[in-house]
Amino acid sequence: MPSGEIRRRKNATNRQTAANSMSSKASPLTQTKRSTGTDNADETNPRQSGKKSLKTREYDEYAWFAVFLFAASYFVITRRGGGIHHSRGGLLSSFSKPYQISASSVSVMGNHEEMIRSIFYIAKNQKDSTRSSSSLELAHNHQLEVVLSSPPDLYCTEETTDECNTNDNQEECKKQISNNEQSIPFLSYLISTTWVHDEELGRGFLLLADGGRSGRIWRWEVGGGPITIGRSLHMERSGCRSGLWVDGDDTKMRNGTCPENIFSGSVSSSSCSKTVSEQKASSPPLLGSASLAVELTRDAERPSIGKNIVVAEWGEKRIVRVEGETGARTPLVVLVPPPAHHDKIEMESQGQEEEEASHESKEVSVPEWVRVQRPNHLTYTPFGDLLFSDNRDNVGIVYRLKEAVHVQPISAEQSRDAHGWERSKMEDQADQNNVDILFQADGVIEGLALASDYSMLYILVASPVGKTVYRLPLDSDDDEDDGSGDATSNEPNEGEKESASVFYSMPFEDCEEDHIDYNGNASLSVGSKLSVDAQGTLYMITCPSTVTLLSREQGRVIGTLTSQGSKSFTSIGFGEDGYLYLTSPNELRRVKTRIGGMAVPTNLVVPQPSKLATTGGDEQRRQKRDKN
User: Fold this and answer.
1) For residues 277 and 187, is the Cβ–Cβ distance under 8 A?
2) Is 388 within 8 Å of 334 (Cβ atoms)?
3) Which of 6, 61, 270, 472 is most buried when burial is the number of CB atoms within 10 A of its CB?
4) Could you tell me what percent of the chain has a pLDDT over 90?
5) Are β-strands 444-450 and 435-442 bridged in parallel, bridged antiparallel, or unpaired?
6) What gap in Å lies between CA 623 and CA 616, rounded to an integer?
């Protein structure tokens, strides 16, 4: 075969092989086009595909701007706010009903105007030359305002009769039902407040202690959203659950019975009772939670961070710690030492023949401890001790529970049985010697507050003639003190290095038209009426609806804040949101301040003691703590 023919056949074979190969590679693509459609722009028209990819990239470049614009708008609306109601939660709150203004000015005493301006927000357009009185107008956005209000809780002591049995009263009863359903109270008798910071939420909230009936703890907060969160129920029956310690001294209650948290002022749809004005009504029994405190956590960022809340239960006559993890109520204080005059009263009541024997036994024996009656004013020291007060036989006593932060928790099962415990942790509390008396005075204690340098304890005492603020040093001598800080007289007792001294005193006559007769009635002195800011200025409720500011140096009055036409204030305290909060039995008020409340440090809390530590070691540790 000629060589030229051979070359032609080889070339034809190579061309056929190449054609077959191209055909096999193109077939899957052809099938894919048929399955997805013949009008696929990405494969059939590369020019259109390139334009679409370019548009997609342009959208991606501007996507961040859309996200930023949305986030900025949300922040402006919900956080920055606008108008006169921006403090309520944001710009949208301007469309809600404004808060009722309770006070729009603050009075200045003497030449302390500069101090008042450093505390409150004063209107900018107010000049000294045009001011005709000794008062300063508060800024329009920072006045004393009522943020929470409830109809009064009237506790009916007698059952009312049904007057809806006749046809003549049906129409009147229907109108009464409709009106009362809109005014059902939810607050019984607010006594105190405390601030809690939630690390998970990144913000804090205010807890309100309701001491009326069996007690409730309310939560009030302003969230980060466009609308104020407002109130929510935090704890039900916060002061009385078992009824084991409810006695018959209070004519409003029966022995062994906790009052129901069912408020009067409403009328059921099935019957129509007498109106509230026709009923025999009075203030509710106070068996709820009187005081609250956040347990200190060592080395925490702030003292308000803590999962455990300490509650003073008046219905159970004890102080408990509500464990945040389990909800168990660990008793902290059940028994306390009796006041110094308690033994004298019992000796005088005994016969002449038993007096000498009783006196001899008193010298060698420890007085029997008694159950706490009305614990109040829970205050933690920087070392982890818990200070609290109690009022017994018109004598006010300040106690200290040493190293309260180290009391071991109990289980939820033990918590149910602990209502009947006569001692904390089922042990003899008197042998533990963990509670001592720091101060006692004739009258009723209305408030406790640490000084800004933690070296002093301010104590507010109300008596039939007026109110007095005492200043008690807190130092290493307290561990050796046996309750000698007696304030029945203004002179220190013999053998004392330092004792309580009078810091400020005022007669009730200074209240003028705002005066209420005390007459030794402890119910008129309910609530925590003393607080201290970060600079050491004291805020105390002197007259029923007046807050008096005292300088830290000499206890001089620098100004007053009075709420016109409001009910008596029951407590005062700072929140970490820049507000000073005031409560009355059924209302919550606040005013914006430039200075916050005094914050207790957490790095001084005594470390957890070792299980092998002896009693002597604990005593040395306490002495070392107080020297620091």
Assistant:
1) no
2) no
3) 472
4) 45
5) unpaired
6) 11
Residues 6+ apart with CB under 8 A from 472: 398, 438, 439, 456, 457, 458, 459, 485, 499, 500
Closest among 577, 617, 611, 619 to 88, alpha carbons compared: 577
Among 408, 401, 411, 398, CA closest to 432? 401
Q: Which helix (H) or strand (E) holds 194?
A: strand 190-198
Q: pTM, whole model, 2 decimals? A: 0.76
For residue 105, the SS3 value is strand
Distance between CA 207 and CA 213 in Å, rounded? 18
Contacts of 164 (CB under 8 A, 6+ apart): 170, 173, 271, 272
């007053």: which residue's tokens? 560
Place of tokens 């925490």: 300
Q: 178 in helix, strand or coil? A: helix
Q: Measured between alpha carbons, how far is residue 283 from residues 105, 277, 289, 462 in Å?
A: 31, 13, 16, 21
Render pLDDT for 79-122 as a digit per residue (tens, 0 to 9). Answer: 444 433 444 555 544 555 678 999 999 999 999 999 999 999 99
Q: Indicate the helix (H) or strand (E) that contains 322.
A: strand 318-322
Count of other CB atoms within 10 angstroms of residue 85: 21
Per-residue pLDDT reduced to its tens digit, 264-277: 554 333 333 444 44
Amino acid at 160: T
Core vs surface per residue 162-181: b (16+ CB within 10 A) or e: ebbeeeeeeeebeebbeebe
| First-to-last C-alpha distance (Å) of the chain | 117
Q: Coil, helix or strand for 450?
A: strand
How much is the mean pLDDT over the chain? 76
Percent of the residues in the chain that have a pLDDT greater than 70, as a whole number: 61
Give residue 132's pLDDT band: very low, low, confident or very high (50, 70, 90).
very low
> Region 154-183: what's the mean pLDDT?
52
* Coil, helix or strand at residue 573: strand
pLDDT one-digit tens code per residue, 265-313: 543 333 334 444 444 446 788 999 999 999 999 899 899 998 899 999 9
- Give burial (CB, 10 Å; 0-12/13-18/19+) of 235: buried
For residue 494, pLDDT beyond 60: no
Dist. CA 46–CA 54, nearest whole Å: 12
Q: Which residues of 535-555 are buried (b: 16+ CB within 10 A; e: fewer)?
A: ebbbbbbbbbbbbbbbbbeee
H or E element that contains 43 = helix 41-44
Confidence of residue 410 (pLDDT cuts 50, 70, 90): very high
Separation between Cα atoms, residue 29 and residue 246, nearest integer Å: 89
Instruction: State which of 62-66, 176-180, 329-333 shows the largest mean pLDDT.
Output: 329-333
Closest CA to 315 of 214, 394, 407: 214
Q: Supply the pLDDT for residue 362.
A: 44
- Cα distance between residue 315 and residue 256, in whole Å: 10
Measure the CA dihedral 419/420/426/430, to 10°: 100
Is the distance from CB of 295 to CB of 306 less than 8 angstroms?
yes
Identify the sign of the CA torsion 223, 228, 230, 232.
Answer: negative
The radius of gyration of the chain from alpha carbons, rounded to an integer in Å, stands at 35
